[in-house]
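Bench notes, afternoon.
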Amino acid sequence: MVSGTSQSDLPAPGHGPVAEAGRHRFVPGKASLILYGCMILLTAYTVQDPARSAWRMAVGQLRRIDERSLAFESYVVGLGRVPLDVISSRSISLTNMSHYTLHLAKPRGDCGCISLSLDSEVLPPGKATVLRVSVRAPSTPQKFAKHVTIQCQESKEQSWVLTLTGDAEADVWASPPRIEIEYGGAQQLTSRVVIHSNQMLQQVESGSPLIVLEGQVDAEPSAGRFTKVVTFRLDQDRMDAGGERRGASFLLVRAKSGSAPVLEVPVQWRPRAPLLFVPSTLEIKSDYGDPIQVNVTVFLRDRTQPSESVLIQPQVPWLSISDRKNFPGSITLTLTISQDSGAKDFEGGLLTLETKEGRMDYRCVLKRARQ
């Protein structure tokens, strides 16, 4: 007999290492088979149409909308030099750089001078649309910047801004555009204005015999612009002789001698008030009853004039000057307003003050309580 393993040593059927390994094999249950099948179907479903998978990441996509989702052809558009009060139009391309459709809201401008339109408000991934912008330039020479804001319905937090810049200018303009002269005492009535133009200017003329031109100097042209500095004065002798203490006229700018003016620069003049009141207007709200007192300070612009020489008189019967103190360059008044029935609501001149430079009124607004 050959030595070895006897039949009695062999494992019984259904026992041993092989049978033991078979018992631990994975046998999928019913729930696992259903889940596995759903995954296969979902994968096939989205491969056929990738747009159908949007619902799976809707929340994530909303959070990932940022400034890179929408690309502008240019975020800053320069309009250059534009005439005053003239409309300039531009078209800017917008491209959807994301992987999902954007629904653009109506664009908004930061002022009423901007008109906007979008060729399409629904923008699929990778597609572009055109934003059409019209801007009306300011009516006065100045550099300007306007802004257009665009948002999408998928994210109210994210916005994109387009900036439009330009330089509004006229063919001819003055700096300052209007001249106001307030004079008094021995003040020199001389002033100056600078005329800017895109063409050579021939001359500047006075529109009134009271405006005397003293000089016109042409500066060196710069950046295609011409500049003329004009100095003039008011003829005080003629003003005093004619009694024209205040008035208005123009400086007339001509491109050619004898041609129609290309610009009229307003010039106004008036005498400077000789007195300054604090408060400037007396406003009183009171009930009927005992007299009330208020204090007013009068400052003299011409400090060489003695304050005692200023004549002050009440204009209404229910006002009296109970105290007056004269100081160098100022006067302090204590006014007493009676509370009788004759002192009703009032608005008008309260005091008359007369100086060597002229006569002035001090105004008052009085509001009475109703009985």
